[in-house]
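Technical annex, item 7. During the second reporting period the consortium partners agreed on a shared format for inverse folding records so that results from different sites could be compared directly. Each record opens with the tokenized structure and is followed by the designed sequence. A conforming record, contributed by the partner at site C, is shown below for reference.
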């Protein structure tokens, strides 16, 4: 693996411009990596007390394979890649309506597509910058003053710092975005649904290395099976946004029950897992659609600037692509962040918009059909073998 420390300096070195990265997930860790290779002194702040773990696996394909190769990480990714996983659409009796054969896996020499557990990719990225950049957990931005020579920053603990650039990699609910661009909800596009996700130890509900999906109008239940764990996902459509307290887990459980009680297939067994204690995610399906991704010396990377939503199935890849494209632009325009930020956006935006549009239209109707018509259309595509994910 390429070690950025061979091409940079210690974090306390004073002759290099400094950059602050907010958020330590895929966008933040990858951005930190690339900024060290450009000669910046990098500080990463992360709201949580450590790396935020959990979630479903990440797809690695296309441009992302090239990027991880350039980062010297592809070998480590291949070593952790999951076996190929097939996808089946089911009916209430558990008969298979159609699906997709497995994506390529670690043994496929064509190397077209890999899947890796979210935690494993986080670890690989973290290892590449650990000890090279300054990482401050349990810290957030509370104020930003963008001036001609740099950004004066106040942190949540009251401490202050000055940085040549600030890069907001703090996810769908980015507070960098809120501080710099104002009300973050104005850039959030509601896709018309909510989802619940919980990862539990292997349940025996389906074979390993399979994804199974069961839908009726407005409701979808999905299981991902692995050797050692099962992802339980439940999603429901809603025309309007629901007013709920994101800290109130009991209220979220009730919402799931209100929608899924009485449904067949494997849903009763899935609901049993909703009722036990444990971490789960419940959120709206949304995208971030910004008019601009940068302002002054601040730029956004990954979900913070252009979340494509879990429906797109490539949030992790998009974050890695964004970080690499930003670094490439800064490399092409040394000392001119304004031109670099503009180029980063101009070149990446068409791809982001294409992915967002595909997820919002095709992805939603295929994975979470809203009504009888969408279910029928999905079934037609399954019969004709023209499902494309
Ligand atoms: C715990 C977790 C589980 C996930 N599970 C799934 C999943 O199952 N399926 C899926 O499609 N996507 C999931 N995602 C989202 C997925 O990781 C992203 O869509 C994608 O990887 C883009 O990465 P990102 O770095 O831009 O954003 P994220 O991965 O969301 O990372 C943002 C980071 O910023 C940190 N942060 C947030 N606010 C602040 C703040 N104010 N100050 C500093 N740091 C802050 C967060 O703690 C997080 O570490 C998950 C994200 C997290 C954090």
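Designed sequence (site C submission):
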């Amino acid at each position: 693996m390429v070690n950025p420390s061979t091409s940079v300096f210690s974090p306390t070195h004073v002759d290099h411009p400094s950059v602050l990265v907010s958020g330590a997930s895929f966008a933040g860790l990858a951005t930190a990596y690339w900024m060290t290779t450009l000669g910046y002194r990098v500080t990463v702040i992360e709201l949580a007390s450590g790396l935020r773990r959990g979630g479903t696996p990440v797809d690695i394909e296309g441009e992302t394979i090239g990027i991880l190769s350039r980062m010297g990480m592809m070998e480590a990714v291949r070593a952790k890649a999951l076996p190929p996983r097939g996808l089946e659409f089911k009916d209430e009796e558990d008969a298979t309506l159609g699906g997709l054969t497995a994506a390529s896996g670690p043994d496929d020499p064509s190397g077209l597509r890999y899947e890796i557990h979210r935690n494993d990719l986080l670890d690989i990225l973290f290892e590449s910058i650990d000890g090279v950049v300054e990482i401050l957990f349990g810290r957030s931005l509370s104020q930003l003053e963008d001036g001609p020579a740099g950004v004066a920053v106040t942190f949540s603990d009251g401490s202050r710092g000055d940085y040549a650039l600030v890069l907001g990699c703090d996810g769908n609910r980015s507070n960098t975005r809120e501080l710099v661009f104002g009300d973050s909800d104005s850039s959030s596009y509601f896709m018309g649904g909510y989802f619940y996700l919980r990862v539990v130890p292997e349940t025996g509900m389906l074979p390993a290395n399979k994804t199974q999906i069961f839908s009726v109008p407005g409701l979808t239940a999905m299981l991902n099976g692995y050797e050692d764990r099962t992802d339980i996902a439940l999603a429901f459509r809603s025309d309007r946004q629901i007013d709920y307290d994101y800290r109130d887990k009991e209220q979220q459980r009730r919402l799931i029950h209100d929608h899924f009680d009485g449904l067949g297939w494997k849903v009763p067994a899935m609901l049993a897992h909703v009722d036990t204690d444990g971490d789960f995610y419940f959120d709206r399906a949304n995208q971030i659609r910004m008019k601009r991704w940068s302002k002054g010396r601040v730029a956004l990377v990954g979900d913070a600037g252009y979340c494509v939503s879990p429906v797109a199935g490539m949030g992790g890849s998009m974050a890695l692509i964004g970080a690499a494209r930003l670094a490439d632009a800064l490399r092409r325009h040394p000392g001119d962040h304004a031109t670099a930020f503009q180029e980063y956006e101009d070149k990446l935006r068409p791809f982001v918009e294409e992915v967002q549009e595909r997820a919002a239209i095709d992805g939603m109707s295929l994975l979470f059909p809203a009504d009888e018509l969408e279910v029928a259309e999905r079934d037609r595509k399954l019969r004709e073998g023209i499902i494309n994910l």
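The chain has two domains: 4-56+118-187+287-364, 191-286+365-384. The pocket of flavin-adenine dinucleotide is lined by residues 22-28, 45-48, 52, 54-56, 140, 169-172, 175, 197, 302-304, 310, 315-316, 319 (CB under 6 Å). All partners now use this format for quarterly exchanges.
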